[in-house]
Automatic annotation (TrEMBL):
The lineage of its organism: Eukaryota, Metazoa, Spiralia, Lophotrochozoa, Mollusca. Keywords: Membrane, Transmembrane, Transmembrane helix. It comes from Elysia marginata. The chain crosses the membrane at residues 32-59, 65-88. This is ABC transmembrane type-1 domain-containing protein. It comes from the Eukaryota.
C-alpha cells in the first residue's frame, strides 16, 4: 500500500512541469509558478524535518525537544504561505 502511494505520487519535476503546462489557463506568471514550486519544495523539506525530529524524539525519549520544535515549524509554514500569497497576488 505504501509502495503504491509513493509510485503514484508526482515527483518535483512533474509538479514543476504541470505548473508550467497549466500556466496559460490560469494566467500564472513565471514568477508565480516558480514560487509555487519553491513552496512545494519547502513544504517537503519541512515535513522531512518534522519526521526527523519526531523519530529523534522517539528514539532518544526527548519529548520536550519535539514539543519545543512544533511551534517553530508552524510559524515557518505560516510565513512561507504568506510570502507565496503575496508573491502570487502582486
Amino acid at each position: 500500500m505504501i509502495t503504491l502511494f509513493f509510485l503514484s505520487s508526482p515527483t518535483i519535476y512533474e509538479m514543476y512541469h504541470h505548473l508550467f503546462l497549466i500556466r496559460p489557463v490560469f494566467k500564472l506568471s513565471a514568477t508565480a509558478a516558480t514560487a509555487a514550486v519553491v513552496v512545494a519544495v519547502v513544504v517537503v523539506i519541512l515535513v522531512a524535518v518534522v519526521v526527523v525530529v519526531v523519530v529523534f524524539a522517539a528514539v532518544t525519549g526527548a519529548a520536550a525537544a519535539a514539543t519545543a520544535a512544533a511551534p517553530v515549524v508552524v510559524v515557518v509554514v505560516v510565513v512561507v504561505v504568506v510570502v507565496v500569497v503575496v508573491v502570487i497576488r502582486f
